[in-house]
Write a structure and sequence with these properties.
A hairpin with a 4-residue loop joins strand 4 and strand 5. The two termini are about 70 Å apart. The protein folds into two domains: about 170 residues, no CATH class; about 130 residues, Histidine kinase-like ATPase, C-terminal domain (Heat Shock Protein 90). It is elongated and about 110 Å long. The chain is α+β, with helices and mostly antiparallel strands and about 375 residues long. Strands 3-4-5-7-6 form a five-stranded mixed β-sheet. A two-stranded antiparallel sheet has the order 1-2.
Length: about 375
């Protein structure tokens, strides 16, 4: 067993120090062994909560200690409980001031022990043994036991759990941010890399260019494909099980389609109904179209893509926007890396918006359909 020192908070050191002085001055009329035991309990308790052992071989060296989870803080809790019971022997009709000071010092020690993580099983054993000893002094011993050990341990354990909750909450926030970054990288960089590969492929097949230029275009296409693969690996590392929703893109759906057409992928847009959609619907619809075009560029380069967006009103207050993107499969077309993480993320994104997303591959055609409900009053 090896130990390392832990810093003892200044508040506890001050409380125990003042308590020790009061006990030393106030207990001069008590038996010497009682004064020595009280001061010794305070000093030993502070020393124990400042050292926390690491049990290297719990099943061999200290099996009992390892099983119960009792380390130095547990020993400090035991000292506090025992000292509280012993101090009860000095109380008759009134409570001496030094006993109050002793209880305050023991309270601080047990509070720190609870915050350092003394397990409930170990605490139960300590409190049970101390309660048996307190039976000799009656109710007074039980009260001092509760004040000097049980209550502060419960409070300290509650503080520890609160600290752990704060840590877990911060970790979840960090994971949500990682998920947001992953989706942003997939939806923006992945799309741009796919368009870059498509333009490079068109240059590679351009008969008006010389062999060196076509070879350079091929290298650009291969580099874009490799970068897409590395991007997929990074996205896989960044993602977690609960992707965070994304903000609407600055670029409109019409702009996105025009860029794709200029890159060499034929796209037809058919839009019926109002185009000024609520922000959350517009953002989700943009991501659906972007992912569909990215997949078409990857798996069916040069094949025509049809995008249909229809906004209808089912009642006077509820509307529905349906986004449909279809493209034919190219026989023997190479499958670019990615692993389908984009469609999986879009499915959850649509669910967060209250809608659904369905992707099918039948009859040689690939189709993505997203249904996004929204309030009619939100339409601008």
């Amino acid at each position: 067993m090896t130990s390392r020192r832990l810093p003892v908070p200044a508040g506890i050191l001050t409380t125990v120090g003042v308590a020790a002085v009061v006990v030393l001055v106030g207990s001069w009329a008590e038996p010497w062994w009682l004064s020595a035991a009280a001061i010794g309990a305070l000093l030993i308790g502070v020393g124990l909560i400042g050292g926390y052992p690491r049990i290297g071989c719990p099943g061999i060296a200290y099996p009992g200690i390892a099983y119960l989870g009792i380390a130095y803080p547990g020993m400090a809790l035991a000292v506090s409980a025992a000292a509280g019971v012993v101090a009860a022997a000095a109380i008759d009709d009134s409570v001496p001031v030094w006993c109050v000071a002793l209880a305050a010092g023991l309270f601080a020690i047990a509070l720190r022990a609870g915050r350092l993580g003394v397990r409930p099983r170990a605490a139960l054993i300590i409190f049970s043994a101390a309660a048996l000893g307190a039976l000799v002094t009656g109710v007074t011993g039980l009260v001092l036991l509760a004040v000097s050990a049980i209550l502060p341990w419960v409070l300290g354990r509650g503080q520890r759990q609160q600290d752990q909750l704060v840590t877990v909450t911060a970790e979840r926030a960090r994971l949500r941010e990682r998920a947001r970054i992953a989706h942003d990288m997939h939806d923006t960089l992945g799309h741009e890399l796919s368009l870059l590969a498509l333009r490079a492929a068109a240059l590679e097949l351009d008969p008006g260019l010389g062999e060196p230029q076509r070879r350079a275009a091929g290298e650009i296409r291969a580099g874009a494909g490799s970068a897409t693969g590395r991007l997929a690996e990074i996205v896989t590392l960044l993602r977690d099980d609960r992707p965070a929703p994304l903000h609407p893109a600055d670029e409109s759906i019409e702009d996105l389609i025009q860029r794709t057409v200029r890159a060499g992928q034929p796209v037809t847009l058919a839009w019926s109904g109002p185009r000024d959609l609520p922000d959350h619907v517009a953002g989700t619809a943009y991501r659906v179209v972007q992912e569909a075009l990215t997949n078409a560029v990857k798996h069916a380069p040069g094949a025509p893509v049809t995008v249909r967006i229809a906004t209808t009103t089912s009642t006077t207050t509820v509307g529905r926007t349906t986004v449909t993107a279809t493209n034919p499969r190219v026989p023997g077309g190479a499958r670019a890396p990615g692993g389908g993480s984009g469609l999986a993320g879009l499915t959850e994104l649509a669910g967060l918006a209250g809608g659904t997303l369905r992707a099918t591959d039948t009859g040689g055609r690939f189709e993505v359909v997203a249904v996004l409900p929204h309030a009619v009053s939100e339409d601008r």
